[in-house]
Amino acid sequence: MARRVANVVARSRISSFYPLHKAIAAPKSGPWEQQLRHLNIHEYQGADLMSKYGVNVPKGAVVSSRKEISTVLEKEFPDNEELVVKSQILAGGRGLGTFKNGLKGGVHIVKRDKVEEIAGKMLGQILVTKQTGPEGKPVNKVFICEKLQLVNEMYFAIALDRASAGPVIIACSKGGTSIEDLAEKYPDMIIKVPINIHKGITDADAEKVVNGLNLKCADKNDSMQQVKHLYDLFCKSDCTLVEINPLAETADGKLVAADAKLNFDDNASFRQQEIFALRDQSQEDAREVAAAAADLNYIGLDGEIGCMVNGAGLAMATMDIIKLHGGSPANFLDVGGNASENQVIEAFKILTSDKKVKAILVNIFGGIMKCNVIASGIVNAAKTVSLKVPLIVRLEGTNVDLGKRILKESKMNLIAADDLDDAAEKAVAALA
Ligand code: GDP
Ligand code: MN
């Protein structure tokens, strides 16, 4: 349950359908996608998966070091004069991104004798795009692809749609650049085709999509087949998103998925083990990686008040009431109904190591979770991490007196609060 609510919170951060995103800290800018609890895989991994479903993808080979490149060129691309060198990060907008070392562009089309040089400048470097936030993402792998003659770039996606309660295919005859810009510039060119999950994709559905793409030269039937393969991949791999941008037409009349973003439902990890083994933690929010290791329900946000709460509902209420008092939460954190003292310590470490956190609000309603366990966890955590920000604590419920006594006897410097409202008010006041 808690995890499910956490997923909802995460999803609400990009969903315009879900009103909750207004209630919780909506960052003004930042790496929204990265905080979703949906597995995201690299382009080269996605290309491999798509080709297994019969989707046309450019021929490519991935390298993690400069010294592998000459062999790859010889073996995989003996006759290619030009190649596309693509940084592998779990964020879009690479083409228009900039490396912290000054190199412009995370995607380069180069002559074969320049591949080594340009890939060498990407590997091990940090790429900043409009989706990564200013901190950027490390490029640990580079995908070297054949250069295709792209005569037309389009947009294609399959997502889950609340309105039709099933998958919806979104297509646009213009693509390549960001869909946000396309949606603004050409709203009438975007078509949506909901698919009946029980019937599956019909010829009529596939035809609508292909018509919407307004193809210049690719064969219509082949293209409908490609759309069906993509739908097949979406369902069989438990995707939450398949986004191909650009879906391109090549000079020889083929439809090719030149770049793809694939997301997968975390709740399906048990039956998609091969896919979930592809998870790359080097691209994830470090706070969330640590929280997952301690089995905490945690989602990083961009505010200043670190929250430690038990129960997903109370955690949501805490975030709301912080907003109500003019503050913004730094995270969603539900330590769970029966967290161990160790988990509390880990949670506290994550909150205190977060530079954005300017105050910590602990809000515990002890039921199965006992207030004294939380109190001991906080006291013991404070022994190992130095607490530099104000700590506001509201305890209520099971063993509350014992919990309060533990905190008092520890002589920790904290601000006690009577209830949720009082706690939020004090936390916001403590920021000043
Ligand atoms: P993104 O910026 O992270 O979305 O990276 P993409 O993989 O989409 O690459 C950005 C752009 O590079 C695409 O929209 C294309 O215009 C171009 N591009 C990528 N591969 C090829 C290719 O094989 N041939 C040509 N001509 N252009 C390519
Ligand atoms: Mn792209």
From TrEMBL:
Family classification: Belongs to the succinate/malate CoA ligase beta subunit family.
Protein name (record): Succinate--CoA ligase [ADP-forming] subunit beta, mitochondrial
GO biological process: succinyl-CoA metabolic process; tricarboxylic acid cycle
Cofactor: Mg(2+)
Organism whose genome encodes this protein: Selaginella moellendorffii
Location, primary (coarse class): mitochondrion
Involved pathway(s): Carbohydrate metabolism; tricarboxylic acid cycle; succinate from succinyl-CoA (ligase route): step 1/1
Span of domain ATP-citrate synthase/succinyl-CoA ligase C-terminal: 308-428
Residues covered by the ATP-grasp fold succinyl-CoA synthetase-type domain: 40-248
Binding site for substrate: N310, G367, I368, M369
